[in-house]
Amino acid sequence: MRLNHKVAILAATAAAWGTVSAQELVVKIGHVAPTSGAIAHLGRDNENGARMAIEELNAKGVTIGGKKAKFELLAEDDAADPKQGVAAAQKLADQKVNGVIGHLNSGTTIPASRIYNEAGIPQISPSATNPKYTRQGFKTAFRVVADDVHLGGTLGRYAVKDLKGKSIAVIDDRTPYGQGVAEEFEKAAKAAGAKIVGHEFTTDKSTDFTSILTLTKSRKPDLLFFGGMDAVAGPMMRQMKSLGVNAKFMGGDGICTTELPKLAAGSMPDGNVVCAEAGGVGPGEKKGMDEFRAKFKKRFNADVQVYAPYVYDAVNVMVAAMVKAGSAEPAKYLPALAKTANYKGVTGNISFDDKGDIKNGALTLYTYKGGQRSEIAVVH
């Protein structure tokens, strides 16, 4: 009798656990960024933004369709390499993730987006700015930052009208991001009246810019625009200083990081560098961003580089669509995600247009003073 009684108790306990697990919904969120290689500091920044969002969602006890959701982060490293990015995307698709946040670079985001589209998995990039990403006709592709047309165009106009750039040299790293933002900058600068004295090319792996900078110096530009990332911009600025290239330095969001002064190693006179982040909040919205930065610092013992807040918002926007649809199944919540309107994030208001681009995307212009990023203005 005692044995049967024990069996009965165990059966009842198992049934109870089954009931609990049946009421729990596991939601797998994929995240992809370069957590190895030259810009690993940016990839880790993005991944930590996702991790913080997942931890907070689990602490809140979010319910989707009447079931308590348990969110899991499946993080992959694409090393900013297109082939590795596609492999990471295929791995996440095979794991049947419910959604993907990423990738960081346009060069990995664009080829990976085809994999997610074929699998029907919604993807939100927090930082890819090349226009092509959302112009492929994929209903699964979204982004929460302004694209290169806005970013490069704004910087081009600012270079001429505000920095009084008349003779401008352009260098890009030939990646989809670097080339895209440089070309949009050049178009806008020309339209505003500047003379482009040269457009040279390097790579995102280069470390020696002597020949390009020597040629650039001979053209006597008063401003140099670089389309690429901070890991290349820093050494480039060091070599500009040693070669005596006395020009203001501009770049897009790829160089607009808290790590740049360290990478440039004392080669950034105050106010000489201007860059733009493809996002930003106005004066009335700064409290949320400041609170996020403080929480991030406490959690990871690191300052936000650039896009961790956008990753954080992207995760929360995706989950908000699941809650609204009452389902974490991609096909069921995708229509709700596409209709996202006026979501109040730490990075500002988020609404998507019919391409999946953020509506009325903001840009924040920065310079550097005393080795610290200093905001110039937020523009739309």
Automatic annotation (TrEMBL):
It comes from the Bacteria. InterPro entries: Leu-bd (IPR028081), Leu_Ile_Val-bd (IPR000709), Peripla_BP_I (IPR028082). Gene3D superfamilies: 3.40.50.2300. Residues 1-22 form the signal peptide. CDD domains: PBP1_ABC_LIVBP-like. GO terms for biological process: amino acid transport. Keywords: Amino-acid transport, Signal, Transport. The keyword Protease does not apply. Residues 27-371 form the Leucine-binding protein domain. Belongs to the leucine-binding protein family. This is Branched-chain amino acid ABC transporter substrate-binding protein.
